[in-house]
Specification:
The chain has 1035 residues and is α/β, with parallel strands linked by helices. The chain has 30 helices and 34 strands. β26, α19 and β27 form a beta-alpha-beta unit.
Length: 1035
């Protein structure tokens, strides 16, 4: 049966058919139609209606990870927001109150940079003097205005994606209430004793003049100068010389090679070492002025090596005695152009612990005349280098840790444990670098300065350079400026990871921020599960949390301090002072901290004490890590989120955080630490992550490569629902790919889904709900399709509950394209178009399609939000005003019928043999359409079972079909068509006998049996008679 019946001279039969009729267009026109739907959603207050219908349900809150209010959205933003919207909508339709409040991160360096560039540098104006209160406040207002502008631009772009949320009342970290709460959160850390000011090497951007967090750093290729440097041994330590207790240890406690034994008396050994040098290797020569120790490992074998032959002009001289790791000696001498060398002795770990060296720059500018001790460290390996690590505690994390770990023992030996400040904020050597003051490590443009070469030349002049080279390796860069960063010792504000937290003034042993965070991770559901291992590893090994930045646009570290005289500071903890600060921020924003007279205003009666105001700002990760406090816990500004009672507290509600996988070190991380430090638990119950978006060849997107995909262009050309379908059809847990060819495939998938929806809507034009047929009165085919629908229900609901949207789309696409369009709709077209109005089969089919259409539109709604709602308005004009106000269908499990499914697996297998035979005949041009055929189907008697009632002509869409039973050893004719998977079934296709029905186009011998309608079959004649009796045409 086709969709275009014949006309005769007396009657246009097409007017007597139930042909599909719908205003749902074949061509979607999404770029034009979607804005109309957005306007309708706004006019009907869809967000408000969602809140009303969900009132009293358990809450599922997807708390928005704030994008940065700077520039238009890119494809990664689009994926992120669409994914959040699918989560929110599907959870609402699963029976939750799923309220989405969007938010923005508004503070930080990128906006400062934009203001400096657009308002100052480009106009030749000097940068404001931030020490001037008026200038600082004015600059902050410029930043606030810039962030507001882009927040509004991005809001419209996100709404265009079809994302439903409280767009009229978003949160922003720069809102006054937010800034006040961020300050309160900081005060909690001050009160529980974990906030402190310390001196520590941090990653520092010379270009941006600020410390950077791990999340703000990316690793790029970089070519470094490398040097092998000699530290001359001066003496064993006092303890090794026997001044502490007993005699000093011998050079080698491990028995040496027999050939060397005679040279290993304690006296001879020490004499050898007294003339020796410990060799280090470093890729940062500029850090050598900050060297205060050498690290070794007691797990590594070391030896004393003598150069026996070297070129005369070489830095390594014949006769030099060098201490090296045995595994690396050969490679070091090769780099140093040494012709020949020999191992003189074994050097044991106990001996190394006792050694002291001179600094290789000793005497330069009258400085560096201090002892350089050797320290045993787990971070030292013999994979590369020399087996010794130059240790500058002001320029490296491991250097800092081993130095501070040994500080007390060093002081006992008379070695100062003070960490020098050798490099200033501009990347220049300070007065604490004698002879090299002012040399630049990195200049203001982020380029290498002259410090490296200056240090190398001084080493050469003093005979301390053994070799030099170049190394291309991965080195940390600022993700904003793309310039290399340096580790430098600076005063910063930290939150301690391993200090017992004093809640209410009392500390419990072992109750640290690290312990709390690790416990919270273990009770959080991570999607995908690998995220748990990733963040556990990060929390387990991370150092104290650096929360300060030396910039202008952010929430200040709103505390007062009093210097202790040892570099540390006492923090003022005064409830009245804190309250004045918070109240001022609520009314005036954090700008109040920088206004003239702020110190006196906030300190009040304590202004005459020696408390100093801190002017550093908080790292933006502390801002965003506090969003749970000023959004989820603020019923005044966000009443729709009021009353969250999480399952962890015995309630029914859940909170999800969703962002890219890089946020394990960013927002997930800072939120976890902030909440655990102030509330003792994570702020979330679920954490869902997605990968990065790459081009279709798996490359990172770059404007220079020309491989970017702009969501705005995709929407303008194809519509937002195409982007939404791409998001849901991809495996978001991994890196996603997108490009022209991938989008073509998505468009094709969309077209097929839309055609199935369109056909159902057109067919249901003729459906009257008061004529619905009960399930138990339906034919087998309808019951089969509803059984399959029940199976889809289980798959789709489970997948949505598990945030597995790829399975939702794959399963529905297969069901709609294969089971519905390619099978059920094809088979039932004749019944639906041609059967008489009174036909129970036709009414049963319409009933089944109505149930299917209802379910499919609801299941597709979270993904194809525009298309599903457009179709819903046509499908149920008398129902809910939007499909998004409905729930996923329930009760479909009543249609399960496993026995029927088993029967129809066989029926459809036999049908495939028939359709295969028909294709052969069609290819040979012996038939045109399948209605010209009358297949003879040869079936073994043993498989017939309950197949006797199957209408094979209907199932195979032929005019007639006959079955021949094969008994015993009978086989199909030799020329019968067969398929390997059902080899005992054969089909011979014969031409259909009879005349062609002018209405249904079937070829039947019964055409003309009814004298009133001589050109149609009896079935069609009955249909025409009913139409005539009703005085109607199909409408």
């Amino acid at each position: 049966m086709t969709d275009t019946p014949e006309k005769t001279e007396t009657l246009d039969y097409s007017k007597t058919l139930f042909l599909p009729q719908t205003d749902f267009p074949m061509r979607a026109g999404l770029p034009q139609r979607e804005p109309e739907l957005l306007k309708r959603w706004a006019e009907m207050d869809l967000y408000g209606q969602l809140r009303k219908v969900a009132k009293g349900r358990p809450k599922f809150v997807l708390h928005d990870g704030p994008p940065y209010a700077n520039g238009n959205i890119h494809i990664g933003h689009a994926l992120n927001k669409i994914l959040k919207d699918v989560v929110t909508k599907s959870q609402q339709m699963l029976g939750h109150d799923s309220n989405y409040v969007p938010g923005w991160d508004c503070h930080g360096l990128p906006i400062e940079w934009k203001i400096e560039e657009e308002n100052y540098r480009s106009k030749g104006k000097p940068k404001p003097n931030f020490k001037d209160s008026a200038a600082m406040v004015a600059f902050r207002k410029e930043c606030r205005g810039y962030a507001t502008k882009w927040l509004n631009v991005q809001r419209d772009e996100f709404k265009r994606l079809g994302v439903i949320g409280d767009w009229d009342h978003p949160y922003a970290t720069m809102n006054y209430a937010a800034e006040a709460q961020i300050a309160r959160e900081l005060m909690k850390f001050a009160a529980n004793g974990t906030l402190y000011r310390g001196s520590k090497p941090v990653m520092w951007s010379v270009v941006e003049k600020t410390a950077l967090a791990e999340a703000e750093v990316e690793y790029e290729d970089y070519t470094s100068d490398t040097v092998w440097v000699k530290f001359p041994v001066t003496s064993p330590s006092p303890r090794a010389r026997g001044e502490g207790r007993g005699e000093g240890a011998s050079l080698g406690e491990t028995p040496p090679h027999p050939a060397l034994r005679a040279d290993l008396s304690p006296q001879a050994g020490r004499g050898d070492l007294a003339d020796a040098s410990v060799v280090i290797w470093t890729t940062t020569p500029w850090t050598l002025p900050g060297n205060r120790a050498i690290s070794f490992s007691s797990k590594i074998s070391y030896g004393l090596y003598k150069v026996t032959d070297a070129p005369a002009d070489n830095w390594a001289k014949t006769g030099d005695l060098l201490i090296l790791a045995d595994a690396l000696a050969e490679s070091v001498f090769k780099q140093a152009r040494v012709v020949a060398f020999e191992k003189v002795a074994v050097v044991a770990a106990e001996t190394l612990k006792s050694l002291e060296c001179a600094h290789p720059l000793c005497g330069l500018g009258g400085g560096y005349q201090f002892t350089v001790p050797l320290l045993d460290g787990d971070h030292v390996t013999d994979d590369t280098g020399t087996g010794f690590v130059h240790t500058a505690p002001g320029h490296g994390r491991e250097d800092f840790e081993i130095w501070t770990h040994n500080a007390r023992a060093l002081e006992a030996r008379g070695i100062s444990s003070t960490i020098p400040y050798t490099v200033d904020e501009n990347g220049a050597y300070t007065e604490q670098v004698p002879g090299l003051v002012g040399k630049r490590v990195i200049n203001d443009k982020g380029e290498k300065g002259d410090a490296n070469e200056a240090v190398i030349q001084e080493l050469i002049a003093r005979g301390r350079l053994l070799a030099r080279g170049k190394l291309k390796h991965q080195y940390p860069h600022s993700w904003r400026s793309k310039k290399a960063v340096i580790f430098r010792n600076t005063p910063q504000w930290f939150i301690a990871m391993d200090k017992d937290i004093a809640d209410g003034g009392a500390a419990k042993s072992g109750d640290t921020l690290r312990a709390r965070a690790l416990q919270a991770i273990s009770v959080t559901q991570w999607v995908p599960p690998a995220g748990q291992n990733r963040i556990t590893g990060m929390i387990s090994s991370r150092p104290d949390w650096v929360i300060s930045r030396q910039r202008a646009w952010g929430v200040p570290i709103a505390v007062f301090v009093r210097e202790n005289g040892d570099g540390s500071a006492e923090i003022l903890v005064d409830e009245a002072v804190n309250q004045r600060i918070a109240e001022a921020f609520e009314q005036e924003g954090a700008d109040a901290w920088y206004m003239e007279g702020a110190r006196e205003r906030f300190l009040g009666s304590r202004a005459n004490e020696d408390w100093q105001k801190v002017d550093d700002i908080l790292d933006v990760w502390f801002d965003s890590g506090s969003t749970h406090a000023f959004v989820l816990e603020d019923p005044v500004h966000f009443p729709g989120l009021a009353g969250i009672h999480r399952k962890v507290d015995g309630g029914q509600d859940s909170v999800m955080y969703l962002e890219g996988s890089d946020q394990h070190r960013g927002w997930f991380h800072s939120s976890l630490l902030e909440s655990c430090g102030t509330r003792g638990r994570a702020p979330y119950d679920y954490v869902l992550t997605h990968g990065f978006t790459l081009d279709e060849n798996g490359r990172k997107m770059s404007k220079s490569l020309g491989n970017t995909v702009e969501p705005q262009k995709v929407i303008a050309q194809s519509g937002a629902d195409i982007l939404r379908l791409w998001v849901c059809a991809t495996d978001y847990a991994d890196d996603q790919r997108i490009g022209p060819e991938i989008l073509k495939n998505v468009v094709e998938t969309y077209r097929k889904l839309r055609n199935s929806i369109r056909w159902m809507l057109g067919t249901l034009h003729h459906y009257k709900r008061d004529e619905a047929v009960p399930f138990d009165q339906m034919p087998e085919l309808e019951r089969l399709m509803l059984h399959q629908l029940a199976g889809q229900s289980a798959i789709v609901r489970e997948a949505y509950a598990a945030f597995d949207y790829k399975t939702v789309i794959a399963s529905l696409a297969n069901f709609m394209n294969t089971e519905l369009s390619a099978f059920y709709f094809d088979v039932r077209k004749d019944t639906l178009y041609c059967e008489p109005p009174s036909s129970l089969t036709r009414k049963a089919a319409l009933t089944a399609i109505d149930i299917i259409c209802d379910a499919v539109l609801k299941w597709l709604a979270p993904a194809l939000s525009f298309t599903a709602d457009e179709a819903w308005q046509l499908y149920r004009p008398d129902g809910e005003p939007s499909v998004h106000l409905t729930l996923f269908p329930e009760g479909l499990e009543q249609y399960r019928d496993e026995a029927l499914e088993k029967k129809w697996v066989l029926v459809r297998a036999i049908r495939r043999v028939v359709t295969g035979a028909l294709e052969v005949e069609r290819a040979a041009k012996r038939i045109g359409s399948s209605l010209e055929a009358s297949p003879m189907i040869y079936l073994p008697e043993q498989i017939m079972g309950d197949l006797y009632d199957v209408d094979w002509a209907e199932i195979c869409i032929t005019s007639n079909a006959m079955v021949t039973l094969l008994r015993g050893n009978d086989t199909p004719p030799a020329d019968a068509f067969r398929l390997p998977e059902l080899a005992d079934v054969g089909v011979v296709v014969e031409k259909a006998q009879g005349k062609k029905c002018a209405r249904s186009w079937k070829i039947l011998p019964t055409v003309g049996d009814d004298p009133e309608y001589p050109d149609v079959s009896p079935r069609d004649a009955q249909a025409l008679r009913e139409w005539q009796a009703l005085g109607l045409a199909a409408s």
